[in-house]
Write a structure and sequence with these properties.
Layout lengths: L11 H9 L7 H36 L6 H8 L7
């Protein structure tokens, strides 16, 4: 992975806290990279969730609310009403 040097400004108290909790031989740089990677994954997940919610609202607006199929699935699993 190609790396790029950047300058970031971190509040002194947060920096001190981060330095107090290293994991093994982990460098501060590795800690920051992992934290940014985790935040990027979180934001991607949140964006995907928001797209799903928006799409669900579009489908519901276009087709209306559909009844739950849970009871039908349970009946089929119990072999009730099968037409094999």
């Amino acid at each position: 992975m190609e790396r790029e040097a950047v300058t970031i400004r971190i509040p002194a108290d947060l920096l001190e806290q981060a330095r107090q909790f290293p994991e093994g031989s982990e460098s501060f740089n590795e800690m920051v990279v992992e934290a940014i990677a985790r935040e990027v994954r979180r934001r991607r997940s949140l964006a995907a969730h928001q797209r799903i919610v928006a799409r669900s609202a579009e489908v519901e607006a276009a087709t209306g609310i559909k009844s739950s199929s849970v009871d039908l699935i349970r009946q089929l699993r119990a072999d009730e009403g099968r037409r094999d």
